[in-house]
Amino acid sequence: MISITVQENDFESGAEINRLAAIGGGAISSFVGQVRGDGKLRALELEHYPAMTEKALRKIAVKASEQWALHGITIIHRVGRLQVGEQIVLVCTCSDHRQAAIEACSYIMDQLKTVAPFWKKEILQDGTENWVEERQSDLDAAQYWKS
After folding, report:
1. What is the DSSP letter of 96?
2. What angle do CA 11, 134, 10 make, to 5 degrees?
3. Is 85 exposed, middle or buried (0-12, 13-18, 19+ CB in 10 A)?
4. Predicted structure pTM score
5. Positions in the chain short of pLDDT 50
6. CB of 28 within 8 A of CB of 21?
């Protein structure tokens, strides 16, 4: 089972984990990302092209399900204007074994950071707005899966 959702509304990670737990298996791995604040950031604005984004997220999930023995994958990614501390992304994977669940969850997050078509704009406390560029650390993490 693969569940992909792109939405403005917040999500309840516990409910999503329970939904995967109901499938069965012995391991669920999850990651919840929040809008990171460094004292200068007021908000983050995420834009996307719906048809392209959902297709890309599904492709990432399908590839993960081909690499690891998974029972289920949940990806929820928020768009719109998000304040510091708000949840931005949830990735959950369910498998019979922890290693597969953990690795697949990590793989999906690395792909979301580098492949998924989201455009992020930082709104700073002083009113300045900046489009977020790719980070070398994210590219390096995604490279790990190509070896």
Report:
1. S
2. 10
3. exposed
4. 0.90
5. none
6. yes
